[in-house]
Amino acid sequence: MQNREQVTQAILVAKVQKGITWQQVAEQVGQSKEWTTAGCLGQMTFNAEQAAVVAKIFDLDENAEAWLQVVPYKGSFTEAVPSDPLLYRLYEMINVYGSTIKSLIHEEFGDGIMSAIDFSMDIQREENSAGDRVSIGLSGKFLPYKSY
């Protein structure tokens, strides 16, 4: 018997063993590399067709394929402040610039939030003579607070 975390681990092991990229998986699934990766890491729900493709790519059994279709518990941090250097830097960016981002969103849109449900993300490499840069684009629907 498996659980979703074990399915994620099986995917990661198979990915390394097969030497495939998330982009290659996404092309077969038919979704963006960002969304497909989130699904493979247990943060999104695959439909039956997508789950079958992922199961085939990673040689997963029917039990694992079923877990890919279960709505996951969202959230990837298992500690208050992440210790992984890359995740820590993202956390640090929000810690340093979070109030600025919040203030600018409120000034532009009003009192509300940026959705992480009606959302897209784009991660790209920017070539730069001083060293390549990581470009992360986040786009979420603005959801205003309502009066009642």
TrEMBL record:
Annotated keywords: Lyase
A single GO molecular function term of this UniProt record: cyanate hydratase activity
SUPFAM superfamilies in the cross-refs: Cyanase C-terminal domain, lambda repressor-like DNA-binding domains
Pfam families, A to Z: Cyanate_lyase, CYNS_N
Catalysed reactions, semicolon-separated: cyanate + hydrogencarbonate + 3 H(+) = NH4(+) + 2 CO2
The Cyanate lyase C-terminal domain, residue ranges: 76-148
EC number(s) stated in the UniProt entry for this protein: 4.2.1.104
Active site: R89, E92, S115
SMART domains xref list: Cyanate_lyase (SM01116)
HAMAP family: Cyanate_hydrat
Function as written in the Swiss-Prot or TrEMBL entry: Catalyzes the reaction of cyanate with bicarbonate to produce ammonia and carbon dioxide.
PANTHER family: CYANATE HYDRATASE
Family named by the database record: Belongs to the cyanase family.
Protein name: Cyanate hydratase
Taxonomic source organism: Paraglaciecola mesophila
Origin organism lineage: Bacteria, Pseudomonadati, Pseudomonadota, Gammaproteobacteria, Alteromonadales
